[in-house]
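okkk here we go again. third time trying to get the cobalt (II) ion bound version out, last two times i messed up the smiles copy paste (missing a bracket lol). double checked this time i swear
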Amino acid sequence: MALRVKALESLLVEKGLVDPAALDAIVDHFETKVGPRNGARVVARAWTDPAFKARLLADANAAIAELGYTGGQGDHMVVVENTAQRRNLVVCTLCSCYPWPVLGLPPVWYKSAPYRSRAVIDPRGVIAEFGTPVGNDVEVQVWDSTAEIRYLVLPQRPAGTDALSEEVLAALVTRDGMIGTASL
Ligand SMILES: [Co+2]
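finally!!
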């Protein structure tokens, strides 16, 4: 795959269709500026600022843009909140739709056929395999992403974290927690 990408890139550059500097800028953008750390900052802000959380749940794009995270593959984002009664799990059964501005590029397993089918058929089983099983008293809600709507899970703030700063809280949040396969 790496060789094929390199060959394709060389050909496009040779034919003058793309500028190598522009390609470098795009790769740098996705490696360093877009990624799950953005989403983690959104989650930490929601945990520490109730007014922001209310805005986030009402209009995710506008609230997320307050932190400066905008861009393609996130035109209509919806934030779904985990509670003591409900765990949310995000999938794209059709392909691999994913909220790039807050999570970056999707992990390989998110794009795999087994995840895409099993997340719907057996969400509890999938979550258990990721390591944080859901109790029988907790409802699991599955959200199927599309090119139009991309979901971000707002995990529950862990108990005993009242004294932690927003920055330290953000470091607790994982990519999988925001997809819903992990609890945090
Ligand atoms: Co898709």
